[in-house]
Every structure is written in structure tokens, then in C-alpha cells.
């Protein structure tokens, strides 16, 4: 069993990470200590998390709001920019965390601090932490881990984050910064970042190291998995405690649907810019990234016209959101798509592999390529899109006016879609996620009559 403790203060490059290397390289792992007995480590985390029970959840919210902003403003001009930092600061803001707590806790965050009345039941209730939450992370979008981790801390659980190799240093580095911050509170009190940090451990073990993965699983009261089918199935195949909760954020893709009413000549450029942003954020690595875009015929701007306008918007967006250089396999996949559709359709593309817009008359969903490749497909009526929806689709970006928007959304919900949002907001990591409020699953309810 080889479970590494990942702490920026003990890594070979303490406190700084080169901007082009957030990965857990063999050199970094060789300098990280092994956890000799994970059961002992789990007990330590549980005892540390018990201190969170003495802190008001509203104070924890204040701490994350203050510390996230402080950690960013304190960064020097030569320091590496955290991937996804533009998302994390608003996510950790006080208004957003209050919104999450209110949604998950029947409108009253006091249930996390003690027994409080629940008038609808005529009794007092408390939201008790489940105990020990393990987060298995994917490397495609490192900021995702903070989404579930912060909710685990807010619900006062002990948390272990099993990091991926790719981008595996992001969360430990970011969390180390906010953990070194103390927040003075009213009445002379202080909430210490070290107290928060003591209830969290960042670890790494090889995916095929069954003994290490088994040790993580057997300590978990909640197993939360971000990742593809292989990662999800691997965790599901591990033994677990009786009654342990599984939360799975597995592989999905997303699409957009544009009605004829959204294609007036005066509005189409703005709509294309919004779609280009959604398709460029995180280079389509996220499950909320659009790949196929269905465009309804019958407007002054045809689906083919829209593809041309979108191409211009993709180039403009490239200047706002620079793209990572494509690897060999990714570049080959893009070249293969371009070659295929130069015959079967029409291709609008950058000189390199930065972005691609493919127009074709094909029906149904295109096979996602990623790397900012967007497929435009015309439909005679937007309701045709419904037959291609399934639970494997995470988000539908929609440009329709009422009442067609409501009609489409009701039909999409019956097909298993859990998120329908305006084009331009698809790339947000919203709440609920995949139809789940994670905080609801991180607690158990205790009643007092």
C-alpha cells in the first residue's frame, strides 16, 4: 500500500509551482511522504473535524469568502496563475455559499450548528455530518474538486481528496494558501485556517493500487467520484462500509439548441459570442461543454450562416481565452474531423488546431472531439432534438422564447436531462450539479421531539 501525502510545504518545490506544471510528476511524488497507516490518518482527521462542530457554519462561510480573495490578491506578479481561479473566487463568495446552504438545508443553515425548529414537522432537527468524505478527482478540470471539498467542510465532515496525476498540485497549493490565513471575528474571536486545514488531507495513490484504493474506500462514509466511466466503475468495485453513500459525477457531454426566433440578424453575433465562450471554456474538457449545436431552419439567418458567424466568434474568443497547445493525439483527432467533413460538410477553422466549426446536414449527435471542435447541424423543428436527448447529456444550452422554452424543457426533463440553461452560461458549475445537491448527501438528519 502506497498512499502519498501531498502537501505543498513538503513537496520538492514548496510554495511555488511552475505555471506549465501542475502535475504530480514522479519527482514530486518521490519527495512526498507515504502515509504508513491510513486508518490512523483517518482517525486523526475525524478528531480534527470534530473541532468544526464548535465553529458556526456562518463563520466558516466568512472564512472561505475572505481567504479566497486574500489568497488571490496576495499573489505576486511572477507567481503561477491557478487553473480555474476565475471560477473559484466567485464560487467561494459569501452570497454563493449562503445560496448553497439555503438550498440544501431546508432554508436554514442553523441545522448544521445544533437543533433548530423545523416548523413543517413540528420538531427540532439537526444536520449531522456523515463523518468521513472521500473525493476521487479527475484531472481534466482541477477546480471541480474544490466544489465538493468546500461542501464537505461546510457540513463539518472530515475530508480526504484523492488527487489525479494531472493538475494534482492545484488544490493542495490553493488550499495551503487559504489555510495560512486567520480571520478575526466579532467579539475577539478568530477562525484559524489551520483548524480548517487540519480536517482535510490531500493524498495520491496509483489507480491500479487496489490495496490503497481499498483503504480509502473502507474509511469512507461518503464516496464522491468525479471522472470517466473507468474511474467511476473502479471506485464502485471497491468494498465499502455498510450504508456508505455514493455520489457519482460520471462521464457526460452537452449540447445546444437554437430556435429560429433567436436568429435575427441583429442578435446572432452576440449569441455566437456566448456560444463560443461556452465551447472554449476549459477547452471542452468539462461535461457541460457544448459539442453539437442544433440550429432551427426558417430564420433570416440560416444554420449555415450561423456556422460562419460562430467561426468568427471562436477566433475572437481565442484572444480572451488562450488555448493550451494540443498534444499529438488531440491534434490528430482534430485533423481527422477536419479531413472527414471537408468532404461530408464544410469546415471553418483556425490555421492551427485552436478551434474548428463543422457544418453538416447530418442528423443526431456528433461524436465529441473536444479541443474546441463544434458541430453545427440544422433541424426543421427544434422539437426534433428531443429524440436525441438522454441521461448521458448533462446540460442543454437553449436559445428559445417562451412558451416554446417551457415546452422543450418539460420534454427534456422526461428524457433525463438535469440542467437546461441559456447559451452563454453552460460553462458555469452550477447548483444542483447532475441533479444532485451534494450537501444533502453529506449529512444525516437527527430529530428531537
Q: Could you explain the architecture of this structure?
A:
The protein is of the alpha/beta class and 449 residues long. The protein folds into two domains: 4-250 and 435-448, Aldehyde Dehydrogenase, Chain A, domain 1, CATH 3.40.605; 253-422, Aldehyde Dehydrogenase, Chain A, domain 2, CATH 3.40.309.10. Helices cover 36% and strands 20% of the residues. The protein contains 15 helices and 18 strands. It has helices at residues 26-30, 38-50, 57-73, 85-91, 94-104, 144-154, 170-179, 193-197, 210-219, 229-236, 268-280, 303-320, 328-344, 404-414, 438-441; strands spanning 4-5, 116-118, 123-129, 132-136, 158-162, 182-184, 190-192, 200-204, 222-226, 245-249, 253-258, 290-296, 346-349, 356-359, 373-379, 393-399, 419-422, 443-448. The protein has a seven-stranded mixed sheet with strand order 13-14-15-12-11-16-17, with helices on both faces. A six-stranded mixed sheet has the order 1-8-5-4-9-10, sandwiched between helices. β2 (116-118) and β3 (123-129) form a beta hairpin. α3 (57-73) crosses α7 (170-179) and α11 (268-280) crosses α12. The longest helix has 18 residues, at 303-320. The chain is globular. 44% of the residues are buried. The model has no long low-confidence stretch (mean pLDDT 92).
Amino acid at each position: 500500500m502506497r498512499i502519498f501525502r501531498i502537501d505543498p510545504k513538503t513537496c520538492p518545490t514548496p510554495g511555488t509551482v511552475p505555471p506549465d506544471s501542475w502535475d504530480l510528476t514522479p519527482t514530486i511524488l518521490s519527495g512526498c511522504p507515504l502515509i504508513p497507516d491510513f486508518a490512523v490518518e483517518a482517525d486523526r482527521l475525524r478528531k480534527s473535524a470534530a473541532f468544526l462542530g464548535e465553529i458556526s457554519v456562518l463563520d466558516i462561510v466568512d472564512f472561505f469568502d475572505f481567504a479566497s480573495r486574500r489568497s488571490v490578491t496576495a499573489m505576486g506578479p511572477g507567481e503561477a496563475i491557478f487553473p480555474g481561479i476565475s471560477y473559484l473566487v466567485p464560487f467561494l463568495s459569501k452570497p454563493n455559499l449562503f445560496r448553497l446552504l439555503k438550498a440544501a438545508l431546508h432554508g436554514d443553515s442553523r441545522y448544521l450548528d445544533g437543533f433548530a425548529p423545523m416548523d413543517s414537522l413540528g420538531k427540532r432537527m439537526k444536520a449531522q455530518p456523515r463523518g468521513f468524505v472521500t473525493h476521487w478527482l479527475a484531472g481534466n478540470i482541477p477546480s471541480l474538486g474544490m466544489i465538493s471539498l468546500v461542501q464537505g467542510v461546510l457540513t463539518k465532515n472530515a475530508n480526504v481528496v484523492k488527487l489525479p496525476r494531472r493538475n494534482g498540485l492545484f488544490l493542495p497549493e490553493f488550499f495551503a494558501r487559504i489555510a495560512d490565513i486567520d480571520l478575526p471575528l466579532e467579539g475577539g474571536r478568530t477562525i484559524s485556517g489551520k483548524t480548517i486545514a487540519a480536517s482535510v488531507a490531500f493524498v495520491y495513490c496509483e489507480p491500479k493500487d487496489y490495496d490503497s484504493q481499498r483503504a480509502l474506500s473502507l474509511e469512507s462514509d461518503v464516496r464522491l467520484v468525479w471522472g470517466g466511466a473507468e474511474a467511476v466503475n473502479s471506485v464502485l468495485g471497491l468494498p465499502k462500509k455498510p450504508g456508505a453513500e455514493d455520489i457519482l459525477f460520471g462521464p457526460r457531454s452537452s449540447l445546444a439548441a437554437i430556435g429560429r426566433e433567436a436568429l435575427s440578424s441583429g442578435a446572432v453575433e452576440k449569441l455566437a459570442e456566448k456560444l463560443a465562450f461556452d465551447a472554449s471554456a476549459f477547452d471542452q474538457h468539462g461535461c457541460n461543454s457544448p459539442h453539437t449545436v442544433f440550429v432551427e431552419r426558417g430564420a433570416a439567418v440560416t444554420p449555415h450562416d450561423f456556422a460562419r458567424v460562430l467561426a468568427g466568434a471562436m477566433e475572437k474568443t481565442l484572444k480572451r481565452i488562450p488555448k493550451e497547445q494540443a498534444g499529438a493525439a488531440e491534434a490528430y483527432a482534430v485533423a481527422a474531423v477536419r479531413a472527414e467533413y471537408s468532404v461530408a460538410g464544410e469546415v471553418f477553422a483556425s490555421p492551427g488546431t485552436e478551434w474548428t466549426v463543422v457544418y453538416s446536414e447530418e442528423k443526431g449527435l456528433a461524436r465529441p472531439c473536444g479541443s474546441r471542435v463544434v458541430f453545427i447541424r440544422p433541424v426543421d423543428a427544434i422539437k426534433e432534438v428531443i429524440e436525441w436527448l438522454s441521461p448521458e447529456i448533462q446540460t442543454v444550452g437553449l436559445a428559445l422564447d417562451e412558451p416554446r422554452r417551457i415546452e422543450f424543457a418539460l420534454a427534456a426533463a422526461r428524457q433525463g436531462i438535469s440542467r437546461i440553461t441559456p447559451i452563454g452560461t453552460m460553462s458555469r458549475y452550477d447548483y444542483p450539479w447532475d441533479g444532485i445537491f451534494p450537501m444533502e448527501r453529506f449529512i444525516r438528519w437527527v430529530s428531537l421531539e
